[in-house]
Amino acid sequence: MTDSVAILGGHQSDFATNLDRSGGSVESLVQETIHATVADAGIDLGDIETIHVGNAFGQLYTGQGHLGAMPATVVPELWGLPAMRHEAACASSSMATLAAMAEIEAGRYDCVLVLGVEQEKTMPGPQAAAVQEAAAWVGPDTEGATYIWPETFDALASEYDRRYGLDDRHL
Question: In terms of domains, do 30 and 92 share one?
């Protein structure tokens, strides 16, 4: 078992870019992110031994659900590596990172690629809000909610304010 895990590099795409409008795709986002991350880490693609992809809504926003395999599909040097997708709503990439760390700590692999990939600007706001309901308990938590997450976080903030006080400057 290894004593430590280190993050060697990273890349964050421009969240303001609307891939759907700019002619991009989830595939191009995966490819860009892999190449930029590997360059930042100063490693070769051949150093990567396994892949973890965090994604919550791939098939709902783009129809593309098999994102664990996407890195090897768009970057041929990764073909044949074990790869998996992790879904945990807003924590999907955190779960991918924890799984990668566990593999390293167990001594199974030394170099693991972790990606967080979402393309959510593919539909009008009300339709996207309905898709976001998939991250809640559909029915009990979503009934009567128009925009589930803003409404949920507003209720949470109100309850926190009632119990402990909340300074709006911190929101």
Answer: yes
Cα angle value 137/131/94 (rounded, 5°)? 70
Q: Nearest-5° angle of CA 38, CA 7, CA 61?
A: 65
So what's the pLDDT on residue 24? 86
The single-letter DSSP state of residue 88 is B
**What pLDDT score does 1 carry?**
56
Partners of residue 84 on adjacent β-strands: 52
* Cα 65 off chain centre by: 13
Angle between helices 148-164 and 125-132 (to 10 degrees): 60
Q: Are residues 52 and 92 in the same domain?
A: yes
Q: How many domains is the chain built from?
A: 2
| DSSP three-state, residue 131 | helix
pLDDT band at 17 (very low <50, low <70, confident <90, very high): confident
Phi (first) and psi of residue 53, to 5 degrees = -120, 125
- Domain extent for 87: 19-116
Please state the pTM of the whole predicted model.
Answer: 0.87
Q: Are residues 23 and 107 in the same domain?
A: yes
Residue 130 and residue 92 share a domain: no
